[in-house]
Specification:
This protein is an all-alpha fold and 88 residues long. It has one domain. 68% of the residues lie in helices and 0% in strands.
Length: 88
């Protein structure tokens, strides 16, 4: 049984890159919110920071994720192209 998995298409690599960015940020914020020393004003600031991340990510996050996914794809010998959809 092989425990390593190498994605074979760029669409999957890009999706994984986007999810990594989002989940890393949410997880970091979640860990901070679980602190025993957390006060309501600190919670509000954490949530504002999270909202700010999503607003910025909506504007330019895809572009950064695309660049990262292209770099990963080149290291894995995956063509940085989306599959063409068949037209009926």
């Amino acid at each position: 049984m092989n425990l390593t998995y190498e994605p074979e298409n760029f669409e999957l690599l890009l999706s994984m890159t986007i999810w990594y960015d989002i989940l890393f940020t949410v997880n970091s914020g979640g860990k901070n919110l679980q602190s025993k020393d957390m006060f309501i004003n600190m919670v509000i600031e954490q949530l504002k920071g999270l909202l700010s991340f999503f607003e910025k990510y909506r504007e330019n996050g895809f572009e950064h994720a695309f660049i990262s996914a292209k770099e990963i794809a080149s290291e894995m010998d995956v063509k940085p192209m989306f599959p063409e959809k068949k037209k009926n």
